[in-house]
């Protein structure tokens, strides 16, 4: 009788770990290779990083909703890695978080995943490796890419599709960033030297070519480790049609799109103002660091124009005013900060406790739960729920319903209520998608009845 290692060798799959019913004899639908990469973001500006298939962002993955897919991830680096399929409702052992029980991709090995991708829409994939104070690993690197799941849904008429991902580069620790006079602290926070859209700085990427009268669908992803993004196309309105892969109940034309790390939005822009324009960050510092791209109409000439928009945003714009259904149970989390912390880095708590010493919440399959976040800090927290989507039940105390997401920015000093149905059994992470917050305490684990706590859930990351 062959043992597992002998079986893999006999099938030509030595070094491959199989997850969630994957079959060694199947052909992979997607193959990703993790390796070191020198990313040129502008002439003579080269960023040493890590990437999928030697490109940043990684290859666009497009799969059909519900059709079984096999994905191989090979790790050609010297450290263990994790590939997280963000926004997908899939089993814990392939979701890509070690704390949920997904095995890491060991150096020199391949991990084969198999699952049925869902829900449809604009999702993404990225590393879930955490390095604490080490800014050369995890989401600070180029390990991210779009994962688009198709179900044949009609998004309306549009003439071309553009994918835009945002990222900041060369992170370093600084003290006293984002201080408020009433909450002074000198804890270490992250700052950056450069920023890019689709891996290139503003003025050094190929312009987006459009024609007057076109409707362009933009799939926009904030793939940053820590930075909120405020994106605008000068002189144009954006109509938000989907967020985090879900159609919004109320479509709305906006001037600027706010996305926290991990959030996505599909917007349609009518090209009705010929010229050469900047599509970029409404935050001057980020745009000057390179966060933007030129949009150029046919036959238009001259320098790209930038018109600063008014930075207004409210998730309530896109939901319904009808109150959400009452939950079966509520979990309340007060988010707070330990300024400076034990190592000089700010630490982030839920109900006064740091990961992994945060209370584990228990779920019963089929019940509706309300997550209540009260932000007592001076920072926004893009809270992310793995393997499920949630409905925004209230934002800043205003009732809402219908808006489905998997990341939402809990702004400083406000309360947000989010409902989800426990319909995907298995260990489930809940955490802030700002890496410096997640890795310094702001993470919790939800367990269904019968779930054991995965061994890796006891790890300290900071």
Characterise this structure.
- The protein is mainly β and 462 residues long.
- It folds into 3 domains: 4-150, Sandwich (Immunoglobulin-like), CATH 2.60.40.420; 160-313, Cupredoxins -  blue copper proteins (Immunoglobulin-like), CATH 2.60.40; 329-458, Immunoglobulin-like, CATH 2.60.40.420.
- It contains 4 helices and 34 strands.
- It has helices spanning 4-10, 92-95, 284-288, 435-438; strands at 16-18, 30-42, 45-52, 61-64, 69-75, 83-86, 110-115, 121-127, 144-150, 160-169, 172-175, 188-191, 194-197, 208-210, 215-222, 229-233, 238-243, 246-254, 257-259, 264-270, 276-281, 292-297, 329-338, 347-350, 361-363, 368-375, 381-385, 390-395, 398-399, 404-405, 407-410, 415-421, 428-432, 443-448.
- The strands form 7 sheets. Strands 23, 24, 26, 28, 29, 30 and 32 form a 7-stranded mixed β-sheet that branches.
- The longest helix is centred in the N-terminal third of the chain and has 7 residues, at 4-10.
- The model is unreliable at 1-14 (pLDDT under 50).
């Amino acid at each position: 009788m062959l043992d597992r290692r002998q079986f893999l060798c006999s099938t030509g799959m030595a070094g491959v770990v199989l997850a969630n019913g994957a079959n060694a004899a199947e052909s992979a639908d997607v193959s990703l290779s993790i390796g070191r990469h020198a990313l040129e973001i502008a002439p003579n500006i080269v960023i040493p990083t890590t990437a999928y298939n030697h490109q940043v962002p990684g290859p666009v993955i497009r799969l059909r909703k519900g059709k079984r897919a096999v994905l191989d991830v090979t790790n050609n680096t010297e450290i263990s890695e994790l590939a997280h399929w963000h926004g997908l409702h899939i089993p814990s052992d392939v979701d890509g978080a070690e704390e949920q029980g997904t095995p890491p991709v060991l150096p020199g090995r391949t991990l084969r995943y198999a699952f049925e991708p869902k829900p449809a829409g604009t999702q993404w994939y990225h590393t879930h490796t955490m390095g604490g104070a080490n800014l050369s690993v995890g989401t600070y690197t180029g390990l991210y890419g779009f994962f688009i799941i198709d179900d044949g849904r009609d998004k309306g008429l549009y003439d071309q599709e553009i994918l835009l991902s945002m990222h900041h580069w060369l992170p370093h620790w600084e003290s006293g960033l984002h201080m408020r006079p009433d909450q002074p602290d000198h804890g270490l926070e992250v700052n950056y030297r450069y920023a890019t859209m689709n891996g290139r700085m503003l003025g050094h990427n190929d312009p987006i070519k459009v024609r007057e009268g076109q409707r362009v669908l933009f799939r926009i992803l904030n793939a940053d480790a820590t930075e909120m993004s405020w994106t605008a196309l000068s002189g144009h309105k954006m109509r938000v049609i989907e967020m985090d892969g879900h159609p919004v109940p109320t479509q709305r034309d906006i001037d600027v799109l706010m996305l926290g790390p991990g959030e996505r939005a599909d917007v349609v822009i009518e090209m009705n103002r010929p010229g050469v324009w900047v599509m970029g960050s409404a935050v001057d510092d980020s745009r000057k660091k390179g966060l933007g791209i030129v949009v150029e109409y046919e036959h238009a000439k001259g320098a790209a124009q930038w018109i600063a928009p008014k930075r207004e945003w409210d998730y309530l714009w896109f939901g319904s005013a009808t109150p959400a259904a009452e939950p079966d149970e509520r979990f309340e989390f007060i988010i707070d900060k330990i300024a400076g912390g034990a190592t000089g880095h700010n630490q982030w708590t839920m109900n006064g406790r740091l990961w992994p010493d945060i209370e584990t919440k228990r779920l019963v399959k089929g019940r509706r739960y309300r997550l209540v976040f009260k932000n007592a800090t001076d920072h926004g927290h893009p809270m992310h729920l793995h393997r499920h989507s949630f409905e925004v039940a209230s934002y800043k105390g205003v009732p809402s319903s219908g808006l489905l997401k998997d990341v939402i920015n809990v702004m400083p000093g406000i309360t947000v209520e989010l409902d989800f149905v426990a319909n995907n059994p298995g260990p489930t992470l809940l955490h802030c998608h700002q890496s410096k917050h997640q890795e310094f305490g702001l993470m919790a684990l939800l367990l269904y009845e019968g779930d054991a706590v995965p061994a890796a859930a006891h790890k300290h990351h900071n």
